[in-house]
Records
---
Amino acid sequence: MNIRNINVPISVCWTITTHCNQNCDFCYAVKDVNSLNLDKNFKILKKLVDSGVKKISFVGGEPLIYSDLFPLIKEAHKLKVITSLTTNAILMDHSVLKKYSSYLDWITFSLDSLNNNIQAEMTRENNHVDKIIYLLDEIKEKNYNINIKINTIASKINKDYIEDMASLIRNYDSIIRWKIHQFVPLRNNAKKNKSKFYINQKEFDDLKDKILNNRILKNVDTRINFSGEKELEKSYFVIDPNGDVNGNNGVEKIGNILNYSVSELWRQIECKKEHINRYKKVIDI
């Protein structure tokens, strides 16, 4: 595949809101950026699809807080783009899941262990594990055609409990991907709480070896990926709630998508090769 032949990103992470219903101590998300109204977001969506973007991941904050999320995802599905939602699941009950089930190709759930006490120590909500399992059961029982990805933050608090999640991965065929992220003290809460969560590269590599050599996981089809501190925010094309596009370090603003074409913004991204290597399978879906 020739990088020069790809003039726009394959996949876009669209931070639809920075508002969140949690305040996780490990979170480095940008805060307090105003969201655009639905009409402007429809314009962004059309621009992305018309340019040839294949997949849009709606992220936050907590995207379900954004009041116009449903019509936006419904329209994206209508335009035949692959749709993905990343959520902490607090606002997702059976009725919300049913409402979105016909319009989402992927849902990403955040889960850092199978122990509610560890989850609470990670500053997740109470009974977070039970909520995720309930939703996974609901997807299984209702036979919703949704692919599931699990995002796990590897930290000092939970690193000895992550391997136990192998049983969950094995029990749900809908879990297509499991991605384990090394905690990174980039900014905001994460930077303030570095001593509470930080693990070094050797600790992360040791965890990776344990996961890859787990006997249970050798017999599952789930794709398991690891994202270390060095890979942080590389390869992503990120749109902020106000339309600003993040550049090569995840912080630099390279322009607003309402004012520039997608291809113009893409030309300013240095990590094209990493992006294409990450998302090239999407082209074949």
Note: The chain has a mean pLDDT of 91.
---
Amino acid sequence: MKVTSLLIFYMLFALSCKSQTKSERLIMFENELSQDAIKEYYDNQPLPDEKYILVNFCYYNYFELFGNSGAVIVYELNDKASEKLINEIKNYKRLDNDRLIFQDSRHVYKLNNENIELPELDHELGDVTTSKTPKNNDVEIYLIKKGRLKNTYNNEKRNKTEHSFSCGIYIMRNESKIIYWFLIY
């Protein structure tokens, strides 16, 4: 009987801790999007099952102002995750930093002559982005996927049209951090 009680207590404790690990901003992001959009967000994360440390999560909903919204996550990688990422990179398209054009009015970078947009590296992400932009050659950019989403938002006003999206990673050279982005535009 004691073992069963102890096991039940442990499971409840573990589940309550797990639910507290999601940040409020991530919950806001998930509440804003449809299930299809959330599925794309999670399915395309480069290291979904690895043990890494979440350094920062930035959710921005600029759709009304700038025509885009999304999430940017900074991860601190351990050796195992770094090794896995090196193997995964072969599956992603490397983007040329020199082809990026900053669109100040939308706070995004657009890949010249392609319908691919990337978020800027926001100061909210902390010291990892200090003085770095996607245009810097110290930043390697990999596109994981681009596409279109129907029924992107739960908000019915915006739900009537399709939206483009892109997701990928920024790798800061000489650092053990990566940034995963998911941008809807």
Note: The chain has one domain: 22-184.
---
Amino acid sequence: MVLLIYSQRHHPFPKILVLNSTNKHQLQQTQQGKKEKQRVLQNRAKIANTIECELQNAEDNVNPSSASSSPTHKLTDSQFHSTSSAFLDAVALESADLHPAPTTLVATEGGDYPLVTGFGDAKYIWFVESSKLWGIAGPIAFNIICNYGINSFTNIFVGHIGDVELSAVAIALSVVANFSFGFMLGMASALETLCGQAFGAGQVDMLGVYLQRSMIILFGACFFLLPLYIYATPILKLLGQETDIAELAGKFTVQVIPQMFSLAINFTTQKFLQAQSKVGALAWIAFVALISHIMILHLFINVFKWGMVGAAAAYDISAWAVAVAQLIYVVGWCKDGWKGLSWLAFKDIWGFVRLSIASAVMLCLEIWYFMTIIVLTGHLEDPIIAVGSLSICMNINGWEGMIFIGINAAISVRVSNELGSGHPRAAKYSVVITVVQSLLIGCISAIIILATKNKFSIIFTDSEPMRKAVADLAYLLGITMVLNSVQPVISGVAVGGGWQGLVAYINLFCYYIVGLPLGFLLGYKTTLGVQGIWIGMICGTFLQTVILVFIVYKTNWNEEVEQASERMKQWGAEALDAT
């Protein structure tokens, strides 16, 4: 399936098409509810019939000597393009029904934007692209912020118990839990690929099978990660952490083992729902979980006086509440994709494992970079203040970063959709508008941090030395916020353009060959301490951002459209072959 696989596999969010006047008129006549769903199913049936007929015609005209080859390989260029043309027309009709574009959108022939000739044109395109961007980024960012808030509020409540406890929980969540989080999320990313393909091809029945298969693999991965939790104390001591911090962190990691197992359900059901663009349910579940988590933390820590044990219990309860709620929604409200337990989940499981591991390695390169920064800080003099102050700043930076993760996903969708639709100018304008808006948000965030540098740490700690250390790091936090407003956006553009392999090599070089060694030298060989480590991290991030900006600046968007077209033809041939 050419367009549907491309859209759903990489971008499980609504696709907005530019419609001509005829399609707009048809769209206005579209009925809602069950009638619309019925028509979509009929369109899919027409697509299948079109492909079947064209394949039959191609087979009738092919040389018998090539009968051993696949049906796709038998097609001549003209036959294949004939098949593709009929197929694309049917897919475009279905996409228009599902994802209508704004009726006021002005487009040139072919659907691309006209050249900007004045302020009025720029203003109009700014408004249209902003609407599209935030329509996708908003729900994603809200979901991520709520989930991240569970970690942050755990740190906030523990910070009022004591500095040692804050540092221990920060190490446990930032190092051990973050390690498993990145690995598990990467493993679950393989599910997004297969569910997207199945949903786009109309094989909705297979979604539940893929979901179960991924759950089996992720539960197995949890047992693989258990030693990291059980032996966290000696591991942290081996890494040079102070004994008091390492022992408390080790106890906390053992207590949050149930939370790790909840990720096997949380991540898989999340990818299952995203493949069908059902992100609204994820946002509501995350919001309710965050509010409940704050209430449970208050009850266990402030009322029952359970200390770190109460924080761990609240963390486990909230994590499993999210996982169970998402699973209930899948089983109860996704009847098309969930058909019950199936033995097919065990079929070709090793191939799924290989795909999952490959996805995990790509994602972990970036996540573990920031985890390593915390570990390096634990070797400095007065590690309690150093780790605690850096963790508070990272918490604040993480809150802002959640917004840009949503923008990252949104710009990836926009660039991919426009390149796939043959609209190079729209892709370019979308990139420019998104970068400008993101940079504006980053600058405003940095100004707020600098204006409140002596006050914002109060919500995390009552310790005066800790608050002073945080204030000293505020300038670096502001710089990081500005950088992080651009870097995720450019990374999203790169992913949308299909440059994942290139970006992985860039991350490896900038983070692990430049950033970490430089941070080590500045932190341990000078008097800068934690500031030196952070400066090294900033240099790595800055270098990565500059390289990616240069790549985007030198990009020929017309060539990217051609490459996207070739990519879709290849995927279409694979889909026809599978049929």
Note: Confidence is low (pLDDT under 50) at residues 1-34, 61-109, 570-576.
---
Amino acid sequence: MKSFLKILKYLLFTILIVGLIFVVIFFRVWQNNERPGLVSATWDEDEVLLGHSRDLSVTIRAPWHRDVITARPVAHPDFLPPVKEKYLFAKGDLDFSGYRLWHYRIPLVATDTTSLEGKTITLPIKRTGRIGPNSVTVPLPELTIKLPGSIPPDPENPQNFLNEEPPLSEEFNDSVIPEDQTNYWLIVAVILILLGAVFFLVRRQKTINATPPWERALSKLDRLALDDTAPEKFFSQLTDILKQYTAERYLVPARAKTSSEFIRDLKRLSDIPEEHLDKLPPLARLADGVKFAGLTPDDDDAPHSQNLVRSFVVDTTPKPDTETEDA
């Protein structure tokens, strides 16, 4: 039960951190209040007959707090008017960066063969209570306008002369709305990785807490290499093992002290065997000399010192009956 509560605590903490990160991201987006940006603008076909219409599909990327209430252009070339009441828009997905995609489909009628080079169309964005942009300008992509056999009498109302096609739908169809680009598998993978990391940390902490200090010290001594290790590094690691073991075994704060200072404090403990109180001071002086004074130890100093620390750990390991009494 305690392990479950600990996992739950770590999980809630992780969720809190992730939530705070998103709060900061979305707040910065709201604070900057940037102008929506153009993602894409394409025609449904590359050419059109004069007097006929083509659908302009536009996708913009806007801050999360900006809305679209109409797709009716506020500005367009005079020779390219929109088909009345047939301009549509749809709200896209909100991404993790605090921006949302908006999709437009606007039928435009070609009433002149003028080139579209340098021409733009302006789409409105709902106003907010803050000073900021309320429109987005879209450069019109290239469209070839061809002359038909006869000119329609009313080019701004092309429904009477369009080819035999079904009327424009009031809703987007699948060919207009881009597929959802959100990678949900990636989201699931991130969540699983976070849960796995939390579980690993809890298990690791539980294992460390369950392993007594003498077993951890002996394990570290076994991994401490005698060969290919600089004397300074070897004696630094060796004294760290000794200090950490003694600090955990006897609750002595010794990590920040020199080896000689540590031994002086160790002599005040009544539980330390007398023979080790006589053997450890030379080890402390040797270690401090190697670490701080550049002393070069003899070849047998390293293995002798390692065996001395191992012997100290073994001799001060509680016996089974002592462990039971301590528990």
Note: The CA atoms of residues 33 and 132 lie 7 Å apart.
